[in-house]
Automatic annotation (TrEMBL), chain A:
This is 3-methyl-2-oxobutanoate dehydrogenase (2-methylpropanoyl-transferring). The keyword Mitochondrion applies. Belongs to the BCKDHA family. It comes from Brassica oleracea (Wild cabbage). It holds the Pfam family E1_dh.
Automatic annotation (TrEMBL), chain B:
Keywords: Mitochondrion, Oxidoreductase, Transit peptide. It is an enzyme of class 1 (oxidoreductase). Pfam families: Transket_pyr, Transketolase_C. This is 3-methyl-2-oxobutanoate dehydrogenase (2-methylpropanoyl-transferring). Transmembrane segments: none annotated.
Length: 473, 362
């Protein structure tokens, strides 16, 4: 048999497999492993009671001493077999991959805590116009949140959720995208809409559920949507938008568009099954989609230590074969650059990208939450002051001579006036007509809905006092 | 079921009761070419036509690429390419979620769930996303191009996880449609309607009939309207309502009953949501009796919805309680399948005549 053995070790193993009737190549290699190679770690050099093993070892000896085999490497480096899924090399050492790297994935930032540009920082340059718009929109977002939050406290709105602390994520990511990129938000990204031109009046209309609300009064406040701005309507269910975004991205790829899908979610959202489903699909389908995780430390009252035990969300990208980056979410320039680069890769290379934006949820989860019940007021205050995304970016913008105190106070007084007017108008605009309870369930109302509308109208006629009078019939 | 029918209708057995006549099912044109096809081939034909007629349509799911475990997607990948017909990872929530996203961008996404028993991971996507996509956006967005196909129902040896009939769960979700064909010819036309309907549709295919049912199926592109029930057998003594594979069973029961002089009117509901109440109501007002049959467990099954509605609308015309002959309230068993199924010979455990208000539970 020896003369048929060539120098190729894989041929040797094939011989083993066929002529010695091994069940599988891994079976064969297990016998091989008992014979350790030159320079390898010391072995259990016992004589095996198994005759097949002894035969293998003899053959290995024969081969190893053969002059034809110039590649005298240890068996550990042989790519023994193609398993479905590709070649893997074997190792005789029992070694578990650690649950975490020794060092956490570093976080990309451009500005230091005080808004000074770090030396050697790489970033995509931003024009004065864009920078000023970015900063102004961050201020506008914060003020809009202030005023709507107060309106809820006064009982004029049923509900509200702020994006305090996450203004840079909101605005900078939007600024780095094109208007053709389709957005699948969670619910803490109204800044993307704001950047694209959604007016304060339009926000107010949705919050008050009046007849000018594009959603026709069907959903709670902050559940915005705008087809003209390519921003899919918010649904409160967590992470359900993620696989939708992948499908949309695939459509953009198939239609050859110069655009990607972008979807946002929180640290909590990354625990949902839909996150894993979406990431895996995105990689397999080679879909141009950006997964932007706002890791703000809290999912309502659940801190990230109760959410996952990985090094945050960024490391999960590799598990799915997805390129990922961790970024300082409170650094507007870093966010802008990361999203800008990610978008280009996604579209050019037809691949998904995962961006973990580290930040802090300064506000309560919503108006139904009092976060001082589960975290210290000091912690909130520290993030609000020391790591404030607005002040950091403002410092940088001003350092370029593009902003001033005067510009700031002008902006703030204008926004305040606009907001109060928007609320005033939204509040007194009438609600959508009752027939909109029944429209859009399907493209055309089926018979059962037409019948039910008649019944409801009859009920209203007989007991008008039982029904709100601000919904026109 | 036949003995139940005879007890129901004993008093009405009139000499020379008309035997039901079968109505032709589709609006077929005179000179169409037809081919003898089984159910999976008819489905396959519909999918070929759907992909051919709309370049922005896609078919995907687990194992769809090589033709599918039930062969419904044979030849599609070869013909239309792997970009339009492809395998997905093993993840129903991903399959449906991805399909919703595709549909939201104006495409037609015809997704396959390998077996209806595995549809539940996608339930959240179907209920909270697909069903509400248009409504919650104020009609700015919709995912009407989504069609979810899933084989359902007993297959003789399927046990818990290859035999389920989950239609009732979906009939409770405003915003989607639920369609179940009874035969190859019906399946092709209903599937094309479902794919082209501007609303998300869940389409359950009776897997028992994939090979068993063979019928002349027109080769051209045709559609059968949704939400229109069909009287497939005319009669005057009792109305029977069903869908899918169960109609074959019910038809046998009708034949047996006719031997005892009972004239049965058999209705195929076809679309369960929104369902055609008018056709059923008119029939029951004529016959005065209603029997509903489905494989799914009786409690909370869709038969309860039909029963309640017909009671509301036809109470004064009813001469007997509405009867439901259904699967039992157990997980679908293997060895006990023949005992579980609502077969034609099922008899009630207690007499309906002595206590007319008691529902017959099978």
């Amino acid at each position: 048999m020896a003369q048929h053995l060539k120098s190729s070790k894989s041929t040797f193993l094939n011989v083993l497999r066929h002529s010695l009737a091994f069940g599988s190549p891994s079976h064969a290699s297990r016998h091989l492993r008992q014979k350790l190679p030159h320079g390898g770690p010391p072995s259990i050099k016992k004589v095996s009671p198994n005759p097949l093993t002894r035969l293998c070892n003899t053959m290995v000896d024969t081969l190893s001493s053969s002059h034809e085999d110039t590649n005298n490497e240890s068996f550990t480096n042989i790519q023994v077999m193609d398993f479905p899924g590709g070649k893997v090399s074997f190792t005789p050492e029992i070694h578990f991959i650690s649950e975490s790297n020794e060092e956490r994935v570093p976080c990309y930032r451009v500005l230091d805590d005080n808004g000074q540009q770090l030396p050697n920082s790489q970033f995509v340059p931003v024009s004065k116009e864009i920078a000023v718009k970015m900063y102004s929109d961050m201020v506008t977002l914060q003020m809009m949140d202030n005023i709507f939050y107060e309106a809820q406290r006064q009982g004029r709105l049923s509900f509200y959720a702020t994006a305090y602390g996450e203004e840079a994520i909101n605005i900078a990511s939007a600024a780095a995208l094109s208007p053709d990129d389709v957005i699948f938000p969670q619910y803490r990204e109204p800044g993307v809409l704001l950047w694209r031109g959604f007016t304060l009046q339009e926000f107010a209309n949705q919050c008050f559920g009046n007849k000018s609300d594009y959603g026709k009064g069907r959903q709670m406040p902050v559940h915005y949507g705008s087809n003209k701005l390519n921003y899919f309507t918010v649904s409160a269910t967590i992470a359900t938008q993620l696989p939708n975004a992948v499908g949309a991205a695939y459509s953009l790829k198939m239609d050859g568009k110069d655009a990607c899908a972008v979807t946002f979610f929180g640290d909590g959202g990354s625990s949902e099954g839909d996150f894993h489903a979406a990431m895996n699909f995105a990689a397999v389908m080679e879909a141009p989609v950006l997964f932007i995780c706002r890791n703000n430390g809290w999912a309502i009252s659940t801190p990230t230590s109760d959410q996952f035990r990985s090094d945050g969300v960024v490391v999960k990208g590799r598990a799915y074969g997805i390129r990922s980056i961790r970024v300082d979410g409170n650094d507007a320039l870093a966010m802008y650059s990361a999203v800008h680069e990610a978008r280009e890769m996604a579209i050019r290379e037809h691949r998904p990208i995962l961006i973990e934006a580290l930040t802090y949820r300064v506000g309560h989860h919503s108006t139904s939450d009092d976060s001082t019940r589960y975290r210290s007021a000091d912690e909130i205050e520290w993030w609000n002051k020391a790591r404030n995304p607005l002040s950091r970016f403002r410092t940088w913008v001003e350092s370029n001579g593009w902003w001033s105190d005067e510009a700031e106070s002008d902006l703030r007084s204008r926004i305040k006036k606009e907001m109060l007017e928007a609320i005033r108008v939204a509040e007194k605009t009438e609600k959508p007509n009752l027939n909109h309870m029944f429209s859009d369930v399907y493209d055309v109302p089926p018979l059962n809905l037409r019948e039910q509308e008649l019944l409801v109208r009859q009920a209203i006629k007989s007991h008008p006092q039982d029904y709100p009078s601000d919904v026109p019939l | 079921m036949a003995s139940l029918l005879s007890r129901f209708c004993r008093k009405l057995a009139l000499p020379g009761s008309a035997h039901g006549s079968r109505m032709t099912s589709t609006t077929a044109c005179g000179s169409e070419t037809v081919k003898s096809l089984n159910l999976y081939s008819a489905i396959n034909q519909a999918l070929h036509i759907a992909l051919e007629t709309d370049p922005r349509s896609y078919v995907f799911g687990e194992d769809v690429g090589f033709g599918g475990v039930f062969r419904c997607t044979t030849g599609l990948a070869e013909r239309f390419g792997k970009n339009r017909v492809f395998n997905t990872p093993l993840c129903e929530q991903g399959i449906v979620g991805f399909g919703i996203g595709l549909a939201a961008m104006g495409n037609r996404a015809v997704v396959e769930i390998q077996v209806a028993d595995y549809i539940y991971p996608a339930f959240d996507q179907i209920v909270n996303e697909a069903a509400k996509f248009r409504y919650r956006s104020g009609n700015q967005f919709n995912c009407g191009g989504l069609t979810i196909r899933a084989p359902y129902g007993a297959v003789g040896h399927g046990g818990h996880y290859h035999s389920q009939s989950p239609e009732a769960f979906f009939c409770h979700v405003p915003g989607i449609k639920v369609v179940i064909p009874r035969s190859p010819r019906e399946a092709k036309g209903l599937l094309l309607s479902s794919i082209r309907d501007p609303n998300p549709v869940v389409f359950f295919e009776p897997k028992w009939l994939y090979r068993q049912a063979v019928e002349e199926v027109p080769e051209h592109d045709y559609m059968i309207p949704l939400s229109q029930a069909e009287i497939i057998r005319e009669g005057s003594d009792i109305t029977l309502v069903g869908w899918g594979a169960q109609l074959t069973v019910m038809e046998q029961a009708c034949l047996d009953a006719e031997k005892e002089g009972i004239s049965c009117e058999l209705i195929d509901l076809k679309t369960l949501l929104p369902w055609d109440k008018e056709t059923v109501e008119a029939s029951v007002k004529k016959t005065g009796r209603l029997l509903i049959s489905h494989e799914a467990p009786i409690t909370g099954g869709f038969g309860a919805e039909i029963s309640a509605t017909i009671l509301e609308r036809c109470f004064l015309k009813l001469e007997a309680p509405v009867s439901r002959v259904c699967g039992l309230d157990t997980p679908f068993p293997l060895v006990f399948e023949p005992f579980y199924m609502p077969t034609k010979n099922k008899a009630s455990s207690s007499s309906s005549l002595s206590s007319p208000s008691k529902t017959h539970i099978f």
